[in-house]
Amino acid sequence: MKETSLGYMRLKFIDLMRGTDMLKALRELKKQQYWNRERLKKIEDERFEEILIDAAKSSSHYQNIASYQDLNILTKDVIKISPENFISTNYSSSLTLKATSGSTGSPLIYYTTREALSYMWAGIIFSWQIAGYALGDKVAFISGTSLFKNDFKHVLFHKLFNIKTYSTFSLNDEDIEKYIIDINKSKIKIIYGYATALNKMAEYILEKRKIDFPTLKGIVSSAEVLTDEHRKNIENAFGVKVYNQYGCNEGGVSAFECEENHLHLINTKCKYEIDSDGNLIASDLINKGFFMLRYFTGDKLIMDENNICSCGRGFPVIEKVIGRSYDIVIDNKNKILHAAFFNILFKEDPSIRQFQIQFDKSKISINLKVDEGCAKSERYSKYLDIIKQHLCFDEYNLNLNAPFLVSQNAKHKYVINTAA
Ligand SMILES: [Zn+2]
């Protein structure tokens, strides 16, 4: 990290403007990466002790908590009842309001701090660097609306960062053609995007349009489970290596893939636990403004605790991200779409209160709970058109305000495979 380079100056400027310190968090991560497992675990435990004492003292939700064992599993529903109970009275800087973009039907509203944002970005930049990124390199974001917004602040942020955004909202052949031409014209060095969107572009390139990407150094896939098949497609189409990046931002979870193809979980940023069903439970060690301890992320993982990776990094190795298997739609061509897709699709429409997707081998039904005054199918048929572009079924149905199917534990299910 040359402190005089233009790329360094760009990040420094963003830090000054936003009150973050991504550069410091990145330096820390680089220093820690080759420490051994024990040393990193010690930091994880020390940081946890520190934040637990802070949380007990300064937030009403944690006031009688003295140890990890005292903590109940924290679900989104608990936070939603009284989010103010998680805010620290001891934290003096301003908090940033955030909403989860995961697969949940209604997003969780929570707060984050500048420190937590700094560490989140450091984790992402670090994963790009393994793929070949140098500070200041031009990066393409290929994603839905959750990774970028188009207001002035975000546009400026992307400009300073040297990020170019490409929307996957309706990723048809015409869009893909435009994007691949622009990626070359803009001399993009790193592509960062959703696995399924990258795969869709890869299929287009492989089937219809062989093209070289002379400036591209690497691709980082994020936000969705990256299957082996998708990885192979993307690498063949773009002619560079694909690295996986995994995160659950509200839980402080961030993982990067190393040169040896192992996904390392940054455990100095979150304390983690895998329960008997394989669920990842995380405690954010950096966000001291809105405490989220022993948080049920909804993601399933398999850890490979004994794996000492030959890359030399001591961060624990994730053997597999299973994702949310119950939140996946499979169409009649075996194409898989994560529920996050629907969340992004419906998020911008305030009249949609909740959704549930039901499907079997031949048909898919989109059930929407909408405001009574808006309950006309014409208003929502555009969503059906978008879904038709992405998923292949014999029959597509749209139902407004019909009762949802409920599971035994009465928890709302966003996706139901009625044939299973
Ligand atoms: Zn490694």
Small ligands present = zinc ion
Q: Which overall shape is indicated by the principal axes computed on the Cα atoms?
A: globular
Specify the helix fraction band: 25-40%
By CATH's scheme, which homologous superfamily of the largest domain applies?
ANL, N-terminal domain
- Average pLDDT for all residues: 89
Rg (CA only): 22 Å
Strand portion: 15-25%
Taking the alpha carbons of the first and last residues, their distance comes to 52 Å
Number of helices: 11
Order of helical and strand elements? HHHHEEHEHEHEHEHEEEEEEEEEHEEHEE
Structural class: alpha/beta
Q: How many strands in all?
A: 19
Order of strands, main sheet, comes to: 4-3-5-6-7-8-9-13-12-11-10
CATH-defined topology of the largest domain: Rossmann fold
The residue ranges in which pLDDT falls below 50 over 5 or more consecutive positions are: none
Largest sheet: 11 strands, mixed
CATH class of the largest domain: Alpha Beta
* CATH architectural group of the largest domain: 3-Layer(aba) Sandwich
Question: How do you describe this structure in short?
Answer:
The chain is α/β, with parallel strands linked by helices and 420 residues long.
Written overview of the protein:
33% of the residues lie in helices and 24% in strands. It is of the alpha/beta class and 420 residues long. It has 2 domains: 6-323, Rossmann fold (3-Layer(aba) Sandwich), CATH 3.40.50.12780; 326-417, GMP Synthetase, Chain A, domain 3. The strands form 4 sheets. The chain has an 11-stranded mixed β-sheet. It has a 4-stranded mixed β-sheet with strand order 18-17-16-19, with helices on one face. A two-stranded antiparallel ribbon has the order 1-2. Zinc ion (ZN) binds next to loops.
